[in-house]
């Protein structure tokens, strides 16, 4: 009986985390470059139950399998391309990328699905590479973002909406000396002022294994190990480009988010009812049956 309590409690915790993930997505519906997060639940390993101490069959006798509930295993970001929204602001930028990878087993380009995943014949999952702006936080750590809503401060530094410095291709903060009104950036990130090149290019990085990035909040990611994440500079031949005067919209689907939130709420309530049922049963066993 107590095992049922633990199973229902595990279900409540899982649905609570699922609900938190969905509400986080809804809160970032209008955040530029935000990537939807999906909660992944996994069942605990099944246990084999055996009967012991039976006088008729002294040796242990197998009864069957017993499931022990679910747990929220992880939250995965979906790095699919978001829609572009024109702002007309010279310091708003968006990245469009459709990078491909070659399957080493077949020698052919991987056919990524709409969510940016490719599953081979062995069930191994590969995510589509993504292009990111490289930025530097207030402790001089390199970070990555898809949010291109930049501003220029009084010192001419190009900054993100969180105040982080935007880096160029050499890893240095970008500092503008002229007017923002005359700033133009081409599709590969090269900066121009009054039509003249500044010999500066925005630091656009390609992350071949985006699932290795760790979300820090506010659309900012970090790489625990850049070699494992396989991060490199954007090449001219890469299927990625930059658009000035546009922002990438959030990839959150509001309709699906509402459905997921209601489903999590109903599942949470169901587990709650089971716990209440067990509580009443235990109450009767202790206070009524025990008196007999």
TrEMBL record:
Span of domain Flagellar hook protein FlgE/F/G-like D1: 131-190
Keyword Chaperone attributed: no
Coiled coil: none
Keywords: Cell projection, Cilium, Flagellum
TM regions (residue ranges): none
Domain annotation Flagellar basal body rod protein N-terminal: ranges: 5-35
Pfam families associated with the record: Flg_bb_rod, Flg_bbr_C, LlgE_F_G_D1
SUPFAM superfamilies assigned: Flagellar hook protein flgE
Top-level division of the source organism's lineage: Bacteria
Flagellar basal-body/hook protein C-terminal domain residues: 243-287
Family: Belongs to the flagella basal body rod proteins family.
Record protein name field: Flagellar hook-basal body complex protein FlhO
Gene from which this protein is expressed: flhO
């Amino acid at each position: 009986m107590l095992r049922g309590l633990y199973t229902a409690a595990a279900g409540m915790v899982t649905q609570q985390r699922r609900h938190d993930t969905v509400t986080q997505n809804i809160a970032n519906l209008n955040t530029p470059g935000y990537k939807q997060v999906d909660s992944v639940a996994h069942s605990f390993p099944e246990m084999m139950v055996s009967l012991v101490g039976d006088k008729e069959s002294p040796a242990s006798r197998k009864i069957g399998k017993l499931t022990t509930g679910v747990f929220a295993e992880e939250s995965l970001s979906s790095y699919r391309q978001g829609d572009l929204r024109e702002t007309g602001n010279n310091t708003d930028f968006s990245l469009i990328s459709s990078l491909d990878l070659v399957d080493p087993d077949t020698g052919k380009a991987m056919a990524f699905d709409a969510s940016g995943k490719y599953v081979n014949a062995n069930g191994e999952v590969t995510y589509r590479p993504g292009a990111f702006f490289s930025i530097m936080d207030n402790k001089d750590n390199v970070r990555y973002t898809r949010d291109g809503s930049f501003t220029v401060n009084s010192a001419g530094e190009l900054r993100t909406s969180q105040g982080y410095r935007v880096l160029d291709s050499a890893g240095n903060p970008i500092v503008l000396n002229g007017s923002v009104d005359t700033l133009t950036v081409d599709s590969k990130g090269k900066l121009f002022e009054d039509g003249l090149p500044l010999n500066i290019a925005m630091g656009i990085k390609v992350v071949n294994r985006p699932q290795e990035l760790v979300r820090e909040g506010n659309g900012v990611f970090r790489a625990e190990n850049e070699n494992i994440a396989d991060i490199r500079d954007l090449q001219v031949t890469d299927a990625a480009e930059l658009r000035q005067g546009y922002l990438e919209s959030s990839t959150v689907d509001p309709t699906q988010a509402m459905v997921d939130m209601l489903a999590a709420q109903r599942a949470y309530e169901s587990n709650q009812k089971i716990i209440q049922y067990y509580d009443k049963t235990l109450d009767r066993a202790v206070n009524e049956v025990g008196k007999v």
